[in-house]
Amino acid sequence: MSQTENLLKRLPNDIGGLPAEPIQRVDHELEPWEKRCHALADVLDFHKILNTEEKRRGVEALGSEMIGKLTYYERWIAAFANILFQKGILTPTELARKMDEVAARWGDEPPHPPA
Amino acid sequence: MSQHEHDHPHAEIGQSERPGYYDMMETAVRELLIEKGLFEAGEIRRQIEVLDSRTPALGAKVVARAWVDADFRARLLANGRTACEELGISFYDDTKLKPYRARAVSEPRAVLAEFGTHIPDDVEVRVSDSTALVRYLVLPRRPDGTAGYSEEQLAGLVTRDAMIGVIPVTAGEAGVSR
Fold first, then answer.
1. Which phi-psi region, left, alpha or beta, contains residue A27 (left: φ > 0; alpha: ψ -120 to 50)?
2. What is the pLDDT of residue B160?
3. Chain centroid, CA A30 distance in Å
4. Contact B175, B148 (CB under 8 A)
């Protein structure tokens, strides 16, 4: 099988059977923001804004590099943002401004000039 | 107490460190959606309470009930979701990390050995992988020597690892309920 054929047949999450490192038995206590992110997913699903299937596709659409490097909930929030942009519910500019506003609460200078 | 310590008061727990990039992204997305009236802040708070109430102890309750109630066991194996809902339970967490997901299907015996579980060659191993929409609970075998245990004592023996099927349940310390 050619290299590119494999890319078509295996999406980034489809890792069953691939070689991998030894199992590390860690009990991962969710960070507060991770728990909020999980709650956000449930609330978005409940309001029929974004369902589990869209979330799965949104995560796969991040591509294998991001899937490999981002943590579980980092992938979720990145996928949510992209899906909300696609649905026209949020714009990238809105999100960038809001993130500046959140960062400013911690004393950061805004990296983007005010609108 | 020194002057130094007065100059650097301890921040409140949960607010002590500047949040990371994705933490701020979550806050920004959530606040924007609330501002647009798509849902209310209280819904997130209530859902966090629901998430906090989900622990492996809920699954242990399901397993113990299945051991003492054959009818429940049959309903559980026929339809896990509705049987769990009988006990007021709706959801289980899964094992998400890459090495586990990649290797469990091709070398389950080696993966189980890393959990300290050595499966004899004459025992068949079946691997069930979760999808975005489907979760599995492994109904472990009830350990020997637990005939006189109460349902609550039995539940105290069942761990998360037993419910993902990587270790057996053992009678251990006389069924102290946790």
1. beta
2. 82
3. 16
4. no
| Residue among B19, B47, B132 minimizing CB distance to A33 | B19
For A2: left if phi > 0, alpha if psi spans -120 to 50, otherwise beta; the answer is: beta
Query: Hey, what CATH class is A30-115 in?
Result: mainly alpha
Name the nearest CA neighbour of A50 among A23, A26, A81. A81
pLDDT of residue B112: 85
Check: CATH 3.90.550.10 for B56-163?
no
Of B39, B51, B99, the CB nearest to A22: B99
From B139, B127, B124, B138, select the one nearest B70 (Cα to Cα). B139
Q: Is the pLDDT of residue B11 over 60?
A: no
Q: What's the angle, vertex CA B161, arms to CA B156 and CA B162, rounded to 5?
A: 60
- Residues 23-62 of chain A with CB under 8 A from chain B are 23-25, 31-33, 35-40, 42-44, 46-47, 49, 52-53, 55-56
* ipTM summary value: 0.85
Its pTM surpasses 0.80? no
